[in-house]
Design brief:
This protein is mainly alpha-helical. Helix content is about 80%, strand content about 0%. It has a domain at about 320-375. It contains 18 helices and no strands. The longest helix is centred in the N-terminal third of the chain and has 47 residues, at about 1-50. The N and C termini lie far apart (about 120 Å).
Length: about 375
């Protein structure tokens, strides 16, 4: 009897051990599988943050693969990210279907619902389905206390207003977005764009400058935003120049130089603006800066302009010398042709000046270095 009990006890212990081992094996296998899925999700989310076409395609591929595996633990996260990936790739209708499918389920948290409503509302606005989009966004504003989420809602509304050229409404919504989250860079850039549209350029410059400074220290500057800002300043400066608003043009070209945008062209336009204003000393000083920089594309034009400025100042010897440099140092073109004509006019003026001078004056040698700013 005792022997039977011992055998039975041993059998039960062995069975329990085998069952425990099997459970541990299955548990470990499931744990490894979950860890593998999470790693894939994190990899896909990294691609979601990137803007290249290859990254967008990889994000779609990863989350499509994960959706097919039907993992309940990460179901919302996987489906939501797949919709985001499709949206980023331009497939708005498939993204919308997935968002709406998730929205019909009840098994998501309040935080997940707010995140979903924000994305759904934003996408509907960008598809020009304003009434539907606003329902979702208004619902988030009504119920959410998460200031970052609320900020994104206001930014979404502002973007929609901006695309409709509703500048003042867009401005107000961007301001509200920034009030909710002062570190929301995209909202600040949006506000800068609106202010430029409203003609408040220097207020916009402060916002853009702040963005460039902060982004260079953090996750990098968006090339599109940086390019738009810098080229926008330069183009606005040219607009002022063409419309003969020379002081404004000078101000904006100087700003363009600060931003590292076309220094050579900016200096030439600044010199031309000073020339048009009759500020010849400042014009010459600016031309000298241009001639001393490391770019040579406008040097011939700048030298010719320098000669014409000396001519306007009746410094004919200086002007003639400058025109001779243009003739000697550059291949024959329309500028050298003009330089030849202007040099001839300078020599005529010098000769005329000499002919009307008194004998006592003409006996004195002429000093062509009587102006301190003569500089090739």
């Amino acid at each position: 009897m005792n022997r039977s009990i011992i055998v039975l006890t041993g059998f039960l212990l062995i069975s329990a051990g085998l069952m425990t081992a099997a459970y541990q094996t299955l548990f470990q296998k499931d744990l490894y599988a979950q860890e593998g899925i999470l790693e894939k999700i994190l990899e896909g989310e990294e691609y979601l943050q990137q803007t290249g076409d290859s990254s967008k395609s990889k994000a779609v591929s990863i989350f499509s693969e994960l959706v097919a595996k039907n993992n309940p633990q990460y179901e919302f996260r996987i489906k939501y990210n797949l919709a985001k990936a499709l949206e980023n790739s331009g497939d708005k209708y498939r993204a919308l279907e997935i968002y709406q499918s998730i929205n019909r389920t009840n098994d998501i948290s309040i935080t997940e619902q707010e995140k979903l409503s924000l994305s759904l509302g934003d996408l509907l606005l960008r598809m020009n389905r304003e009434n539907e989009g606003r329902v979702h966004l208004d619902n988030v504003l009504r119920t959410s206390t998460d200031r970052k989420i609320r900020s994104k809602v206001f930014k979404s509304l502002a973007d929609y207003n901006y695309n409709l050229s509703q500048w003042e409404t867009a401005r107000k919504n961007y301001v509200l977005a920034i009030q909710e989250d002062g570190n929301y860079t995209e909202a600040r850039i949006g506000l800068g764009r609106v202010l430029k549209k409203q003609g408040k350029d220097y207020a916009a410059f402060d916002l853009f400058d702040g963005y460039l400074e902060e982004s260079s220290r953090m996750d990098g500057t968006d090339p599109k935003v940086e390019s738009e800002y810098k080229s926008g300043v330069y183009e606005k400066a040219k607009t002022f120049f063409v419309s003969k608003q020379y002081f404004k043009a000078i101000e904006y070209f100087q700003k363009s130089i600060e931003l590292g945008q076309n220094e050579e062209g900016s200096l030439y336009y600044i010199a031309s603006s000073y020339d048009a204003l009759g500020k010849y000393t400042e014009a010459i000083q600016t031309i000298n800066k241009l001639l001393n920089n490391s770019v040579y594309s406008l040097d011939q034009d700048a030298l010719f302009k320098k000669g014409t400025i000396y001519f306007k100042q009746a410094k004919y010897e200086n002007a003639a010398a400058i025109f001779q440099v243009v003739i000697d140092n550059y291949n024959k073109n329309h500028i050298t042709e003009k330089a030849i004509a202007w040099k001839k006019e300078c020599l005529d003026q010098i000769q005329e000046k000499a002919s009307i001078a008194s004998p006592s004056d003409s006996s004195k040698p002429f000093n062509s270095k009587n102006d301190e700013d003569f500089d090739f």
